[in-house]
Amino acid sequence: MSRLWNYLVFQAWMSYLMAAGLLVFTSGFLLNRVSRPERAECARCTAASGDCDTAGILQDTERAAKVCLERRARVVLLIVDALKYEFAEWHDDTAAVSSYHRNKLPVIHELLQKHPSHSRLYRFMADPPTTTMQRLKGLTTGSLPTFIEVGSNFASEYIQEDNLIDQNAAGGIVFMGDDTWTNLFPDKFMRQFPSPSFNVWDLDSVDKDVQYRIFFEMKKKDWSLLIAHTLGVDHCGHKHGTQHPEMTRKLNDTNTLIKEIVASLEKDMMLFVVGDHGMTETGDHGGDSPNEVEAAMFVYSTTPLLKGFAINDDDSVNQIDLVPTLASILGTPIPFSNLGSVILDCLPSRVEEMAAGQLLYPLHSLWKNIAQTKKYIEIYSADTYLFSKEQLQHLHYIYSLLSERVKQVDSFEKLEAFIRDTKGYFKLLKDTCSEVWVQFDSGLISKGLLLMFCSLFFFYLFITGIPESRMCDIFKSSFLQCAIIANLITAAITTCLFLLNILEELRNTTFFVTGAVSVGLLVIVIAQNWDVISMCWYDHRRIKLLTYVARIILLLTVCGLFSNSYIVEEDKVLSFLFVTLVCLLIFDLRKNDPDSTSERKTRFTSKPIKTNFRTLVLIIGLLACASVRLSHYFWRCREEHLQRECSIFATGKVGWSTVPNNWERALLAVLLASVILASYVVIVRLWLQSCGNLTGFAPSVMIGQYCPVIVSVCMGCYWILQKFPKFVKPKLSLSWEINTLPNVVYFFCALAILVLYYRPLSIYLLPKKKESIDVYRDENIVPRLFEKIKDSISRKRIDTDELPVIYGFGTAYSAAFISLSVFLTLLYALLLGDILSPGTFLMFITCACVLGLSAIERYKNANSISELVDVSMPVLLCWFLLAEYFFYGTGHQATFPTIHWHAAFVGTGGHFYGNLVSAILIGINTFGSHIILGATLPLLVVVPFTLHRIFPKFLKAKFFDDIKRGELLLFEQDSAFHAAIFAIAGKYTMLHGIRTFGSMLAATIHCRHLMVWKIFAPKLIFEGLGFLVTLGSILASFYMVFRIDQQMEYLITRVTKSR
After folding, report:
1. Are residues 144 and 256 in the same domain?
2. For the ranges 365-379, 387-401, 407-421, 766-780, which has the lowest average pLDDT?
3. What is the pTM for the complete model shown?
4. 319 domain-assigned
């Protein structure tokens, strides 16, 4: 038992080293932009004050940049989440009539036609990532977001940079709607009415709250900026997509709201209707496709807007341009870190102003904007040294020219010429910032790569080069204890140095220093055992040709990570490689017919197998290939899949449910998913019954007997209720009652997993028979007496101290892992939803086929117990490819827009206390294949003993005559068994680690590649998270073996004492 514990500790140590290398690397690769603490300030200047000469203000450009003109209007800012430009523009074609989302905002078209001088419509271009929190930061600070900030979309933090909200707080700000605002700007609003924002299945609550509050607030005079943020359109996109009647309803509601707000505007008010981002056809966002970045901005003013300052031919503006525009209208300083340029034809004019006054307002607004951006770049570059000397000199030269030309503007013609020059300045500024914005810490990147490589290399030497006997000697020594103590002391010293302000950073320093100490200890161990390691390296006789092919396939999967085309088409490539490897495995098993070969005279002898051996192997292999092929229907497309015919029903948003009054088809789909789910539960239940692991009243037996049935029934009912249309659902049950069903699933799955780890044995110890006969009333006991006498004669008075009878003891290991996989798979299926859940059944079938091929291969080739428990490289690579492939086979892609955010609302209703629950649910939905295949990894070692116990006639073998006892032999031969578990866990960890290291190296090489933030960086993030999840699941499976050994030892001790 202590040997297995040492294996577990060593595996955890290696997992820590690899995880530390990954985290150090990502800290250097995915850095945030440096925020500046400075705040912009300005002096008020009005014509009536007497202390400020507005007419000649621009003659002193430095002073003009520090002056704010008076407020021109109060602003109502209505943010319609995910208001795509396509929703707002008018389409005259016939296709718009039948569309669910086109021409549903006619109020915008009517105002543009009737009041062209009072209204504007722009293509409002968002900077990726197109997630709400990052867009709100851009809309309030005017700064460009960094890539990694997408990860904090649901963990809003207080914005510390200068922003519109802070600058206008003195004038009074009222907010209502999405509560993300109150997280970003706590205690900044004069009055606030936030609504929960994370429940994407709720289409109406937030919108109704806004509609109820906004008109009361508009009547009050104490505010300068009123912000209302509705979510119905965005939530409808997430839930149904754009092609759904609900999208029509939500856009109609938005149209009504805009119309009523316009009617309620007073003379000193302006309305800005903006979208923070767009959405794809399936309603997702987060990437940089045109559908996602093209939002809409509609402006309406009760007074005429400035005209003659068209932005460009397609009327597109950047979202950050809203910041200086609102600052100019409200008469406040432009936030310090703004990079946007003021939209001049959005500024309100005053009819009573003279020509000079109408010229001064846009010119001053523009110059103040130029001076603010120049000051920001100067201060930012002075601290970060990101901008080259040539870049700064060029910007300063253009700024000097503009500062001279602004003094000479005294007519609209000169103003228009000046505006054209400023466009070039702002374009150069944004391009320069975009070029240098992403900082890479080469030191941390190098440390992460070095630590990851050393961990993988020395772990490989340890596992493959040191034999079991020598490994036991290492673990019997104080090596592990010294390694743990050394790491703890190193971490403590690092922490003390940080607290004494000697070290500036704690986390990455601790990771790297402890990693360096650990690598040093590994080098010592490897050096001490180099004699046996070198002997193993030169012993190539055991390596088969198929093993070399498997290594080539692994190399292909790693090398492909350096190609953006491979990453885009990785689902196809992984499917092809898996099917290829399975076919090669089938060929290897069939090439030597067991019937035609003479029986080998070895200690381990296989009896002649029936003639259907080849057929069985072929059927198993074809079933695995067919399951993978069927899973193609659940593939989800990413933006780059332009030529691929994607299965749109995999999103669960379009298809049957878009047809009005045709929800019966959706119910049929749910029934099909429920039948497949029930079939899975029945198959596993029959298997466990045939093994004897559902007999008795042990906790794990009761869990396996009843919980899967309860869970599957609750899942089916939940899916059916979700598919009922709105007018039927309230009659059947309330919302909280529907959410109770998945909560029941969570409860029983969590309970089952805890019970399986606490009492993993699903066995039944048969009580000893007593010499008595129970007689029931009016029963004829003569037949029973006869049977009793007959039994006594046949036994010939055997000693009463008979051997104990234990049901399920021969499959104790496999039963625990099969039961664990059932509950993990059911939980995975629930979070995937009814549409994608059949993919989990296909994964189960494929895994079962791989296990069968693995068992047949080892019965065919093994000559000793150590070879029988040794899992070959091709089989292990199949298991690894399945974990990677079924990420795609269950409707996922390595892009942010394709994350299944809806999983966070299954059973929660969108109400969370923190982000832990939502992160866990989305994590299980995304990395379920990694979790399940990692947690059931020991089945690869156990399966030959399990199948021989169930199919003894087919898999006949003579192996000390002990193979008949099934998995009990593993407990008795614990040394070889534990070594095999350690070897397979280590090799499987290394397969994922090598692939993750490949992603890290590819991201480093392509850090300046055009597609780095679109393809390589997302792939790195998904691959890294999958690797961390796999490390945890492997350790969990290791611990399960440890618990089973403990329980079996306790049971055998108890039975022995009772005899």
Report:
1. yes
2. 766-780
3. 0.81
4. yes
